[in-house]
Amino acid sequence: MKTTTLLLTILLMGEFAGAEISVKKVTGELSVNFMDQKLWSQALPDETIGLLAQPVVVPKPTKTETQKINVAAIHDGKWIVFRVRWNDAEMSEANKLATFSDAVALQFPVKNNDVPPPIMMGGKGDPVHLFHWKYQYQLDAKFGKKPINEIYPNMTTDMYPMEFKEKGNYKEATKDQRDSFVGGTAAGNPQSFPKSGVDEIFAEGFGSSAVSDSHLAKGYGEWKKGAWTVWIARPLSYDNGSKLLVGKGSHVAFAVWQGGKKEIGALKSLTMMWTPFFIQEK
Question: Which residue range forms the structural domain that includes residue 238?
C-alpha cells in the first residue's frame, strides 16, 4: 500500500500533472474523415499525459511499459476524435497462443461530467463508457480473421472436417458449419466475431465490463518508426451512454497495452487520475 501511495503521489506531483485537453471545433465530417490531416492541422498542440503500471488488480505489471502518451482532440459539433500517440518498439498482433495485441482505451463518465466516478472502471450505479481499439481488430476488419490453418500452417487435426488436409469425399464446409466448431462463436460471444476496430464497453466497477451492441465508434492506428498513432472517433452524445456537450467540459482516462511486452487485461499502463477536457464552441 505504501509503495502504491508513493507512486500515485509521484504521478500527481510529476511533470505531467495538470494536463487539460482543449478540443477545437473544425469544419468537416469527422464521422468519415476522422484522420484528415487538413482538419488535424487546426488542432491545438498535444497534451502530454503520464501513465502508471496498473497498481491495484492482480496480476499487476512489474514496470510501466508506456510512461507517457501525447493526446489531441477535435470535434465538428456532432463527432469528437481523440488522437493518441505513444512509443512502442514493435507492432504486435494476437494470433498464436501467448501473443497479444497492441491496444489503447478511452474511458468517459456516463452520469456526471463534472464529478466523474471512480477512475478504475466506475462504480455501482455510476458507470463508465469505454472505447477500446486493438490492432488485432483493425487487421481482422481489413483482411478478415485468419483461419487456424494460416496461423499454424503445419498443424493437422482429425477433429474438424473443414481442416482435413486430404478432404476425400467431404465437401467444403459452409460458414455455419465452421462456426459450429468454434465454441465462442456458436454461443454468440461478441468477442468471437470480427471487429470494426473499436469495442464499446460499459462498466460499473471491477469485473463488470460488458461489450455494448453499439458499433458507432470508429478507429484506426498507424505504426511508424517505433511509435503508434491511433485515432478514435465517436459521436459526441449517446442516448444510452456518455454525453459530451459543446461548450462544456468532461473527463477522460486512458490505458495502453503493449502486446509485445505480454500486456493484456490488467497488465497495462494507465492514468490514475481523470484528465479534464473542454469542448470549444469555435
Answer: 2-140+202-279
